[in-house]
């Protein structure tokens, strides 16, 4: 692992680091941002820091291209959320948005410049059939037809198979929990739903919406990043957490309640990792007492495990770009992938799942063709 | 400025294998890295008039096309495209490397360069007036484009028309013209002196060969053109040559359907497209005989505005 953090990570931590970059520096910065899927986020940061006007014309043109794509993305998300609100209106359920759509609709810092492909919503498990029927009535259909995939999602996962709109092609992930049914930790979704907060009127004909409460939003972001096996958006997702912590950190009681809430939801470990690496990569101003609290009890892994996880995560969290990879990066990424699946399912079920995916799914595909 | 022809072959290979060959195509700089000899040959043949910059500095697009490793090194070898470590497309058979290069060069622009309305259309210029030929595949757009280029029209692009959002000017991105299947021999017969690259067989679009753009079109790549005509061509075997005016509203919708980023641009795209339609005249064009088509377009370009 190279000694100095990647240029993109340094600029995310302190946008002033972009001032005075030479053309080679701008080239590297924008290439790392493209690989990490963070170009519009970089634009927002440079603009806020008053550094955009000083960027040379060519990189600035790229950042402006990204602005156009990001504006259009936000407009499309607003439209889609309106349609989802319309579809769910008959069920009487509140529309609870998660992740990217929540950040964008609630006007939170990480929503600015963040692109995402799916809209995630949270509903009670016992109301799933009703929600699914309502969405189907409005044009969304399950994209997975394979019987095994259906079983995988419905019996074991925390979401039903992604539903794709028949005309617009946009995808909704309907969640009933934030971790799989088969995972060891089981944060109680009823607690998350009960604590969810309404979004102040977003205007534009948008429906009434809720998002997770600040603590839960941070914890969900952490669990999503540190329990999953895919790290191609690792840096962006950690930066989401950083921006959430900066924004919520000023609210009374936020810091004191963060680690206790993590204990209540059995999410001490993801919180520990999120704080550790946010501080390490972005200098997030987390109070020492909170770091100590999050690192007590089940939060902190043993010394040997932590040393290993540092080596894996710091590679997974580097910008997904060849200039940030070293000889061990591919190994680290595959170990993180295996770990993500390991956390998802007990070993026996996991080996059965991987066996099915490797040998049975391809064969079934051939028969269908 | 240094052109690719000025680089000795060994230097060209060293740049492609090392820091990258930085090639200027119209308003864009492309840093190209590859270890595929076929691609080096294609570049040396079809891009020798293009300006080349030093390897360092800022490039708009960085592309790498590399041979697949492992078993694929020997068994049905493949070529991979990656941009910033991300591989958005499946690998292709190694002998299609040059066709893949041309596709991904287009993709980089159409996917990201949102300071332009980008229309899937050929665009050429004659007597200061630009002719836009939008068309779905199979309409004979590239055949017409190649034929016009061999008859003195300046090539702005065979694949994408860049309409600058601020002023509606058309920006050239001259690149080789991609000819498919039967068109390859049609153009060989029509213009025996034209330089064509090695045909690439069995692609998803059939056999493809690329026509080298005229040197003058490359030299004038910084010179925008003003739109004058939008012509929707349709090749029909045995059809009489006919040019019929197209109502503006229909033309607007048809161009919108052929635009890569009309949806992304929102209101700015609508305004740019409106101005393009207002400042040009639109026609439907049926043809089967290239020489008649050439004469007709020459008359069109020469008529007083």
What are the defining features of this structure?
heterodimer, A: 369 residues, alpha/beta, Beta Polymerase, domain 2, seven-stranded mixed sheet, 7 strands, 7% strand, globular, B: 305 residues, alpha+beta, 2 domains, eight-stranded mixed sheet, six-stranded mixed sheet, 10 helices
Description:
The complex is a heterodimer of chains A (369) and B (305). By secondary structure, chain A is α/β, with parallel strands linked by helices. Chain A has one domain (7-361): Beta Polymerase, domain 2 (2-Layer Sandwich), CATH 3.30.460. Chain A is built from 16 helices and seven strands. A seven-stranded mixed beta sheet of chain A has the order 3-4-5-2-1-7-6, covered by helices on one side. In chain A, strand 4 and strand 5 (171-175) form a beta hairpin. In chain A, helix 3 crosses helix 4, helix 9 runs antiparallel to helix 10 and helix 10 crosses helix 12. The longest helix of chain A has 32 residues, at 57-88. Chain A is globular, with a radius of gyration of 21 Å. The relative contact order of chain A is 0.11. The mean pLDDT of chain A is 88. Chain B has 305 residues and is α+β, with helices and mostly antiparallel strands. Chain B folds into two domains: 4-112, no CATH class; 116-302, no CATH class. Chain B has ten helices and 17 strands. In chain B, the strands form three sheets. In chain B, strands 7, 8, 9, 10, 11, 15, 16 and 17 form an eight-stranded mixed beta sheet that branches. The longest helix of chain B is centred in the middle third of the chain and has 16 residues, at 97-112. Chain B is globular and about 55 Å long. Classes of the chains: A alpha/beta (369), B alpha+beta (305). The A-B interface holds A 23-24, 26-27, 30-32, 34-35, 56, 58-59, 61-62, 64-65, 68-69, 71-72, 75, 320-322, 325 and B 29, 56-60, 62, 83-86, 112-115, 263-266, 268.
């Amino acid at each position: 692992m190279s000694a100095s953090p990647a240029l993109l990570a340094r600029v995310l931590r302190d946008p002033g680091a972009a001032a005075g970059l030479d053309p080679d520096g701008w080239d590297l910065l924008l290439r790392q941002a493209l690989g990490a899927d963070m170009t519009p986020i970089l634009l927002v940061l440079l603009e806020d820091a008053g550094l955009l006007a000083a960027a040379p014309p060519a990189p600035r043109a790229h950042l402006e291209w990204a602005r156009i794509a990001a504006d259009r993305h936000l407009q499309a998300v607003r439209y889609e959320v309106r349609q989802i609100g319309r579809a769910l209106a008959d069920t009487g359920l509140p529309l609870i948005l998660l992740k990217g759509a929540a950040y964008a609709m609630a006007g939170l810092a990480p929503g600015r410049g963040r692109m995402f492909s799916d809209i995630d919503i949270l509903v009670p498990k016992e109301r799933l059939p009703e929600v699914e029927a309502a969405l189907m009535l409005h044009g969304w259909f399950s994209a997975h037809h394979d019987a095994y995939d259906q079983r995988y999602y419905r019996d074991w996962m925390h979401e039903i198979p992604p539903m794709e709109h028949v005309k617009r092609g946009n995808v909704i992930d309907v969640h009933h929990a934030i971790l799989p049914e088969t995972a060891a930790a089981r944060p109680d979704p009823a607690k998350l739903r009960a604590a969810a907060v309404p979004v102040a009127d977003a205007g534009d004909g948008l429906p009434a919406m809720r998002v997770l409460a600040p603590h839960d939003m941070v914890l969900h972001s952490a669990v999503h990043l540190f329990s999953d096996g895919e790290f191609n958006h690792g840096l962006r997702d950690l930066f989401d957490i950083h921006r959430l912590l900066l924004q919520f950190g000023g609210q009374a009681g936020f810091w004191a309640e963060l680690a206790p809430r993590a204990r209540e939801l059995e999410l001490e470990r993801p919180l520990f990792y999120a704080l550790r690496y946010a501080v390490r990569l972005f200098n997030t101003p987390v109070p020492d007492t909170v770091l100590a609290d999050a690192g007590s009890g089940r939060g902190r892994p043993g010394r040997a495990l932590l040393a290993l996880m540092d080596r894996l995560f710091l590679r997974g969290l580097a910008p997904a770009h060849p200039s940030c990879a070293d000889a061990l990066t591919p190994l680290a990424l595959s170990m993180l992938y295996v770990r993500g699946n390991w956390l998802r399912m007990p070993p026996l079920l996991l080996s059965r799942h991987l066996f099915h995916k490797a040998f049975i799914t391809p064969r079934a595909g051939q028969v269908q063709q | 400025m240094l052109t690719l022809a000025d680089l000795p072959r060994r230097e060209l290979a060293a740049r492609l294998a090392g820091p990258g060959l930085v090639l200027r195509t119209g308003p864009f700089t492309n840093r190209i890295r590859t270890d595929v000899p076929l691609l080096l040959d294609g570049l040396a043949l079809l891009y020798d008039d293009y300006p080349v910059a030093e390897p360092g500095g800022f490039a708009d697009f960085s592309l790498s096309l590399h041979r697949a490793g492992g078993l694929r090194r020997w068994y049905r070898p493949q070529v991979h495209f990656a941009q910033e470590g991300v591989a958005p497309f499946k690998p292709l058979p190694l002998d299609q490397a040059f066709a893949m290069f041309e596709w991904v060069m287009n993709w980089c622009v159409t996917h990201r360069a949102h300071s332009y309305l980008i229309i899937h259309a050929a665009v050429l210029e004659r007597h200061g007036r630009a002719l836009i030929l939008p068309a779905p595949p199979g309409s004979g757009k590239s055949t017409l484009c190649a034929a016009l280029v061999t008859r003195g029209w300046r090539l702005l692009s065979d694949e994408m028309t860049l309409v600058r959002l601020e002023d509606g000017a058309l920006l050239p991105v001259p690149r080789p013209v991609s000819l498919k299947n039967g068109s390859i021999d049609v153009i060989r017969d029509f213009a025996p002196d034209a330089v064509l690259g090695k045909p690439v067989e069995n692609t998803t679009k059939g056999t493809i060969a690329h026509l080298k753009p005229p040197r003058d079109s490359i030299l004038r790549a910084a010179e925008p053109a003003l739109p004058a005509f939008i012509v929707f061509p349709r090749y029909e075997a045995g059809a009489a040559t006919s040019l019929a005016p197209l109502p503006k509203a229909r033309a607007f919708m048809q161009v919108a359907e052929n635009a890569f980023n009309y949806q992304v641009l929102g209101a700015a795209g609508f305004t740019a497209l409106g101005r393009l339609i207002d400042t040009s005249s639109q026609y439907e064009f049926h043809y089967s005989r290239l020489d008649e088509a050439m004469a007709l377009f020459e008359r069109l370009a020469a008529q007083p505005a």
